[in-house]
Amino acid sequence: MDSIKTGIGFRREIADDFFGQSVLDPDFIELAPENWVGLGGYWGDIFKKATKTYPVILHGLSLSIGSPEEPDWNFLKHVKEMIEELHIKIYSEHLSFAKMDNAHLYDLLPIPFRKDAIRHVVKRIQQVQDFLGMQLTLENVSYYTPVAAEMEEADFINEIVEQSGCGLLLDVNNVYVNANNHGYNAREFIDKMLLGSVNYIHMAGHLQLSPDLIIDTHGEKIIDPVYDLFDYTAGKMKPVPVLLERDFNFPESEELAGEMKRLKEISTKNWRDYVVQS
Q: Which domain holds residue 43?
């Protein structure tokens, strides 16, 4: 690694802020392939401009790796074409359940923390990796109730990563949200994670509705305790790209740039020695 990389999700609402000015100047952008596959016209041109201007990570929304049915191979064919055309190094998705019989739930529901679920998900991951010819990277998701759990979330995630050979997208805000909502220690959760398998990190904001309920919204600024958890996490692992995730309720680009700057500062503090050695 020759630099510390901080990026941001590319969204249509702020697309103009990525071109012709220097306020938003990410090292990379993240795109959801579902929103751009096969798109022509004005937004197709914007997509081409963005992907020629910035390195890209793909972050999917609809793979639903925990679904009982086969993956959507037709959709994955388009994803594979995009991966090859844009020379994508990381394609990430969610370790979740989001559809059944092609009925999309438009939410990311937790997969039961169970051994039988692990066997099912590992098989699906390996099928997808074989089809794409590359490693799949999966994100730990926020959840509001466990479903028939027989093991801890950390053990569930680790077994899937070890058995499938997939990478991990570590969403630090999701760790913070789940720790608050389910009453566990966020730093102890990080300590259990296979941090050597992390391919990149998500950082985002959330909405605190009550002392014991946080909703993962991606529509608010990152709060200090989540920055602190990121600082703790970064100090335990090697450098990876770090993404600012913001999906709606967009502030001025200067505020987004300020959040990216703070992420870069924390990253640099923890990882500067790795960069020097490389």
A: 6-277
